[in-house]
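Collaborator request, handled under Task 6.
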Amino acid sequence: MVGKWRARLLQDGIEGLADGGRSGRPRMVTDGQVSEVIAKTLEQTPPDATQWSTRSMAQATGLSQSTVSRIWRAFALSPHRADQFKLSRDPEFVSKVRDVVGLYLDPPERALVLCCDEKSQIQALDRTQPMMTGTAQRFSHDYRRHGTTSLFAALDVASGKVFATLHRRHRSEEFRKFLNLLDRQVPAGLDVHLILDNYATHKTPAIHRWLLRHPRFHLHFTPTSASWLNLVERWFGELTNKQLRRSSYSSVPDLEADIRRWTELWNDNPRPYVWTKTADEILESLAHYCQRISDSQH
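Structure tokens returned to the collaborator:
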């Protein structure tokens, strides 16, 4: 092999090193056809559907279904998938992002930063038929409702520990009781910075009076429709995926006992979520996204 390439170089110079023709069937799909598939996928829709399928795209372009599938895989296109998004219209969006992210990346000294929120209306669902064994896990689609409970939780950004309590109702009175719990459990020498959403129960006159009596508590609000800034939402996702989604409960007390047990297990080995993006990086990403979508009005 080495001798062959040296002979080519001596006979034809640099041009002799170019790859020659190969055996086998020549390429049948041109670059223009690939571009047509990509353009139709991203910019058009079929007349009888809201998104393309491999069959409808093959019929529209004259290619085979397998060829369309290979092109989509090569360019990571999935027309059948749809994600959800919502851009915040909070007029104080920029300042709130900088405030919250600043607490994550550079927390104040002698203070505890807590991400606080409520997971309301958790249903105690009882499946009408028991789970089957010996096969892939499955359960009946229907269920009986036995009531609901609301989980109030605060995630310590530094350690990952969670302060949690359960209430049957979700009012400012229950939120004030949760604040009293935090006041008792957080050492007296530390300030408390709470990151909250804009729910009405967080801003009632009763809560304002409570804050005046407890000056070490400081509230920081996430922008409207931007709960992704609150790290406790990630912990709620862990609770849902690892415990609640596949469980069955015959009563609300059973549900609450299971949530308390799982929270205690979490606190035995807490794992903090590390925030890495700066406020400038977040704002730059959102600005780039707003330029890509039409009529964003941002």
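The cover message to the collaborator said: "The first strand starts at residue 111 and ends at 127. The chain has two domains: 27-82, 93-289. Please let us know whether this matches your experimental observations."
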